[in-house]
Design goal:
3 helices; 5-stranded mixed sheet; Maltoporin, Chain A; 22-stranded antiparallel beta barrel
Length: about 700
């Protein structure tokens, strides 16, 4: 039954906006199937003036960056699937988050100060790449493909206003964003290299209508920020060897971010039956720490074969502290310690052997992938648990695929992945099949792939009991079953010495069944309603895209349009939808070299009106009413101008971020009436038009 789906791939599959064919021979790439991947090149990333991965993805179609103005951090939502359905890799190793059982990775904590490229797979990942990523797979490649001999170093300073707010203060009354970067590398003739990179990002918070951290002698409800301040420090160390078909490296990365949420309201203290002569407020401090250790060995083996082995160990934690603050001088009046709310530690390993059976005709790939994670969650209202969780889960997968390249230009690539979860000893068989056709001017790929997601610790072991309800996990949950159908066509319109012009069409379909959601159970206690995680919902998306890319010796241009239809959301079943709800998006990238060492880059994105359903139930009634909501259209645009001096050792960049002054986007009911929004989210697209300056020096 599965392979019959191939017959309908022409009319249903997944959109791949602004994607162009890119062959990848890197030992840490993710291109193991016929589908092309999108690559954000180093020059484009520099032209965007990005410091972290979240900033690099702002203009990608069908992605939403879920920013948290209060506690900080950025999560990825792709095709309206939350971050549990996408994976972020660093040099091929999946990254764990610091909270919510490791599934939510903070994209703003991933620095890009020494990155060669960012790979984005919005199509099938192939059986060799991680289970569960029905949304996206994003791989940040930091290993230089070509090493420069000798010693090199760089220093960079980045200054940015937050909307109209900026000053050079460092603590009291500080405004703006201040980033410092430093890097050092040494490469020898024998292939040894070592790199050290540091980044400090001080986001001083967005004040808006509030008073920031100014001293407040009397009563106020305007203390604090609309976007809380945070300071992050990221460091990476890499030691490696690359020569004659052998690559080996060890990498250690650390991300340490601290955020403070200032209480907006202060009150006059009342102690022992009397009002005191000072006012106080409660501030909450968060500390997020993540560490990754990664060892990789990649080598050529007998008869043009390739072998790759990865082993990684990572830890993550979220700690929280509530402080009693005297607002007249911001003095801390208590001595509460930081309390650990979440913790995760995990081992990961992957091995792959790729071997040509018939040269240029038949290739075979076989490998394994395994991980073990232990998760701790404190019993606290902040974690939505009233019983501590300290459990571990193990996964193991083996996979194999064959690629047969026919002389007529056709390719066939079947594959199979066997995925095992250790909690209830469940094994899934996940097949994949790709068909390709390539000539000098065009490339057509059709893919069908099964992608399942195993339940996590939260869904299996949660216990949250309140006076009125009780929510429990379910260790008998089945894996969520995903299906990808993809069709992609690339055509070369023109190819000349200094000019290329390509176009692409893409169409795709995603389906998810047995989606895990919270289900009400039969009530056995008169005052408390029971709920449990269950395999309950279905989800579907259908998207189509067209893109055009041109390159010349002095310029580069990309334009894409996507139409995405959705059935189902985080809280609703696709069966509750009467049709696909469509919205459109558009993205434009333009880069031009004005003179020998001057460049100008524009990034633009348009997001059309997004419809969504919410469901409300009148108290005392069993009837559920469907309410149509929609968000207004919005625009994002950045414009940057850069140049180099002193033999391209000194770099200068001036830019404007968020030209359209876009801020928070809210969903509103189409009938103009007031309804409960339920789980509908706010889209925090930005904090206003900002201005930035970057100065870098390379030795």
């Amino acid at each position: 039954m599965f392979f019959r789906i191939i017959l309908v791939l022409i009319t249903c599959a997944m959109a791949t906006p602004m994607c162009y064919a890119q062959s990848d021979t890197s030992s840490i790439g993710i291109s193991t199937n016929l589908q092309p991947i999108r690559v954000l090149e180093k020059a484009i990333l520099e032209g965007m003036a990005v410091n972290n991965l979240a900033e690099a993805l702002r203009f990608e179609l069908n992605m939403e960056l879920e920013q948290a103005p209060d506690i900080g951090g950025v999560r990825l939502r792709a095709y309206d699937l939350n971050s549990r359905y996408s994976q972020v890799l660093i040099d091929g190793v999946p990254l764990s988050g610091t909270d919510m059982f490791g599934g939510h990775v903070d994209l703003s904590s991933i620095p890009l100060n020494r990155v060669e490229r960012v790979e984005i797979s919005q199509a099938g990942k192939g059986v060799a790449n991680n289970s569960g990523s029905l949304g996206l797979t994003i791989n940040v490649v930091t290993l230089p493909e070509r090493s420069t001999l000798g010693t090199s170093a760089y220093v960079k300073i980045y200054e940015q206003s937050l909307g109209p707010e900026y000053n050079m203060q460092t603590n009291y009354g500080a405004k703006g964003r201040h980033v410092q970067q430093f890097g050092l590398s040494q490469h020898t003739k024998k292939g040894l290299y070592v790199t050290v990179d540091l980044l400090r990002d001080a986001f001083q918070g967005v004040w808006d209508q509030y008073e920031g951290n100014r001293h407040q002698v009397g009563y106020t409800n305007n203390r604090g920020y609309s976007w809380s301040p945070s300071t992050g420090i990221q460091g990476d160390f890499k030691l490696g060897y690359r020569r004659k078909g052998l690559s080996i490296f060890y990498k250690h990365g650390t991300s340490d971010r601290k955020s403070t949420v200032l209480g907006h309201v202060n009150r006059q203290e009342y102690i022992n039956g009397a009002y005191q002569d000072f006012y106080s407020a409660s501030d909450v401090r968060y500390a997020y720490l993540r560490q990754l250790n990664h060892l990789q060995l990649a080598s050529k083996v007998w008869m043009d074969g390739k072998i790759q082995f990865n082993i990684a160990y990572q830890t993550g934690s979220t700690r929280r502290q509530t402080n009693w603050i005297r607002t007249a001088d911001n003095r801390q009046l208590d001595d509460n310690p930081l309390q650990k709310m979440y913790g995760i530690r995990s081992w990961y390993s992957k091995g792959v052997l790729e071997k040509p059976i018939l040269k240029n005709q038949l290739d075979w790939l076989i490998g394994y992938e395994t991980d073990w994670s232990q998760v701790f969650t404190a019993a606290d209202p902040f974690t939505y648990n009233t019983q501590e969780i300290n459990r571990n889960i193990a996964h193991f997968s083996s996979f194999s695929q064959v690629r047969w390249n026919l002389k007529s230009g056709f390719s066939i690539q079947p594959g199979l992945r066997l995925a095992f979860q250790g909690v209830n000893f469940h094994v899934d068989a996940l097949p994949s099949l790709s068909l390709g056709y390539q000539t000098a001017k065009q490339h057509v790929v059709l893919t069908a792939e099964r992608v399942n997601r195993f339940p996590n610790q939260r869904e299996m072991f949660t216990y949250l009991a309140t006076e009125f309800s009780i929510l429990t996990g379910n260790s008998r949950l089945r894996p969520e079953k995903g299906l990808l159908l993809i069709a992609h066509w690339t055509y070369q319109l023109r190819q000349a010495k200094d000019f290329q012009l390509n176009t692409q069409l893409s169409s795709g379909y995603r389906r998810l069944t047995d989606r895990i959601a919270i289900k009400p159970l039969r009530q056995t206690e008169p005052q408390r309603e029971p709920f449990q995680y269950s395999n309950l919902h279905q989800y579907a998306s259908w998207s189509n895209s067209i893109s055009l890319e041109g390159r010349g010796s002095m310029w580069q241009f990309q334009a894409s349009y996507s139409l995405l239809g959705l059935k189902g959301n985080d809280f609703a079943d696709s069966k509750q939808y009467d049709r696909f709800l469509f919205h459109s998006e558009m993205a434009i990238l333009g880069r031009y070299k004005l003179a020998k060492h001057f460049w100008l880059q524009l990034n633009y994105r348009y997001v059309g009106k997004q419809p969504i359903y919410s469901f409300e139930q009148t108290y005392g009634s069993l009837d559920v009413k469907r309410i149509a909501f929609s968000s207004p259209t919005f625009h994002l645009a950045d414009l940057n101008l850069g140049t180099s001096f002193l033999g391209q050792q000194l770099d200068l960049m001036l830019g404007v971020k968020n030209l359209f002054n876009t801020k928070t986007i809210e969903f509103e009911a189409n009938d103009g009436m007031v309804h409960a929004k339920g789980g509908l989210r706010s889209i925090h697209a930005g904090y206003g038009r900002s201005y930035r300056l970057s100065i870098g020096y390379k030795l």
